[in-house]
């Protein structure tokens, strides 16, 4: 039924579909392909190449390419990319599981990874990771603990300066480790509350 085909695909008109069907029947009967599509090609090869190049060099965003170039539809652009640069098209994946989101946000908020690195690991854009962070952490902006100098005790207890320096270095390392653990726990807590 022509109406079902048009409703499902979103194109063409009823008359165009009948014309395509007649051409297909002629091709099946004679074995000679129709030249109709070649005579009425809407876009030149240069236009195809220009739009695919724009797509590949400007963030691989179909909507950005269509807005900038003024043509074509997403489906046509996708077919051009598959034709001229196979395997380069960004393919949408299904939703990212919540556990992967939480891990990415935890790594970004603790400073272990940048949002771009976390996004590459998950397979999304860096803005998506920043949005997840806002969603999961909400208004918890003060999660990063400010670094402070450790309080110095009375130095008259020990007379050896080298021993004191070694002890101070050990204490500072322990302090940094504990602060990092505290930041990670605060982030986990905020995510669980969020």
Detailed description of the structure:
The chain is mainly alpha-helical and 194 residues long. It has 3 domains: 1-41, no CATH class; 45-92; 98-193, no CATH class. It is built from 10 helices and no strands. The chain has helices at residues 2-9, 14-30, 36-39, 45-57, 62-69, 74-84, 98-109, 115-122, 126-137, 161-193. The radius of gyration is 30 Å and the shape is elongated. Residues 144-152 have low confidence and may be disordered.
Short description:
The chain is mostly helical and 194 residues long.
Task: Write down the oligomeric state.
Answer: single chain
Order of helices and strands: HHHHHHHHHH
Shape: elongated
**Number of helices in the DSSP assignment:** 10
Determine the strand fraction and express it as a percent band.
under 5%
Gyration radius from CA atoms, angstroms: 30 Å
Helix content: 55-70%
Number of domains: 3
- Classify the secondary structure makeup into a structural class: mainly alpha
State the total count of DSSP E strands: 0
Low-pLDDT stretches are 144-152
Major sheet description: none
C-alpha end-to-end distance: 51 Å
Mean pLDDT: 79
